[in-house]
Structures are given as structure tokens and as C-alpha cells.
Amino acid sequence: MLLDQIDCAILGELLARPKAGVRDYARTLGLARGTVQARLDRLTEQGVVGDYAPALSHAALGFPVLAFIHIQLQQGSLELFTKELASLAQVVEAHSVTGDADVLCRVVARDNTDLEAVIQAILDVGGVVRTRTEIALTERVPRRDISLLQELATTAPQSSRTTVQVDDHS
């Protein structure tokens, strides 16, 4: 989908001030509330906005250990493995990948002993051949979308209605 500068500006406001309402976004951007709402609805329907849930701190929830587990699988076991993997609460993200591993998981744990239990639970899932675990020490660049949005806005077409600026609110 092709986003224009207004879409980018609305998304920038949503990222910078997720608790603000559509009326506030409209006021800040100098747009009609209905325009902002219609565009947000379209962006949500098209999958650009995937979720309105808050980003939780796993560490603050009592899971300060973050690890990445590379998993090699037996051929043909990916679908069943994925279903079983999804039942493990401490697996917070998993992706099929290229390279030596078939799946890369992001997991959280209470401590190293708990991490070992999570790894063992993954090993107990059918189809696992081998795992390799890396523990994250320090987050150097947190997840960020504003910089991508700013890059996109530089090449996005201008709307015929108005031009708005995507600001870095951080």
C-alpha cells in the first residue's frame, strides 16, 4: 500500500502519543477528526496498524532475562512444532528464518535457571534436532518505528489536501 504524508503524520502521532484520542491527533495535525478516523480505520484494515495494545516491559513483569533461541528442526515438522511452541508462555516471539536454524525464538525468563527450563521445554517439543541460545545483555537500540516512518515520509507523495510534518516526539 502506498502511504502519503498525511498517513505518515497520523501514524507518527499514534506512535508518539498512543493514549491521545483521534480528536487530539486531528487538532495537532490540523485535520478534520473524520479524516483522521477514516485514515486510521483504513490503515488498520490494511494491516499497517496491527494492534492498539500497550507495549509491556517483560523485566517489570518479573522476566528480566531475554534470550534468542535458534532451533533446528527435522524436515516436515515445522507446522506441528509451531503449534506446540505457541503453548509456551515465555516464548514471546518466533519466526521462521534462513540459515542454520529453522526457527528463531525470543524468550523471556525469571533467571538463568528459569531460562534453562524454557529451553528444556522447547527441546521437549516434537521435531527439535538442536538449539543454540544467546542471552541478551543490554538493549542497545530499542524497537523503534518513528525513524522508519520519517524515512517513508521523505518519499511519500503529498496529499492534495495539505502537507503535514512527521515529528520525532522522543
Your description of this structure?
With 170 residues, the protein is α+β, with helices and mostly antiparallel strands. It has two domains: 5-54 and 145-155, Arc Repressor Mutant, subunit A (Orthogonal Bundle), CATH 1.10.10.10; 65-135, Lrp/AsnC effector binding domain/regulation of amino acid metabolism (RAM) domain (Alpha-Beta Plaits, 2-Layer Sandwich). It has helices spanning 5-16, 22-29, 33-45, 78-85, 112-123, 146-155; strands at residues 65-73, 91-96, 103-109, 128-135. The protein has a four-stranded antiparallel beta sheet. α1 (5-16) packs antiparallel against α6 and α2 packs across α3 (33-45).
Please summarize what this structure is.
The chain is an alpha+beta fold. It contains six helices and four strands, in the order αααβαββαβα.
Q: Enter the CATH topology name of the largest domain.
A: Alpha-Beta Plaits
SSE topology string: HHHEHEEHEH
Largest sheet: 4 strands, antiparallel
Envelope shape: elongated
Strand order of the largest sheet: 2-3-1-4
Q: What does the radius of gyration come to? A: 21 Å
Can you identify the CATH class of the largest domain?
Alpha Beta
Question: Roughly how much helix do the residues carry, as a percent range?
Answer: 25-40%
Structural class by sheet pairing and helices: alpha+beta
Judging by the overall fold, what is the CATH architecture of the largest domain? 2-Layer Sandwich
CA distance, first residue to last residue = 27 Å
Fraction of residues in β-strands: 15-25%
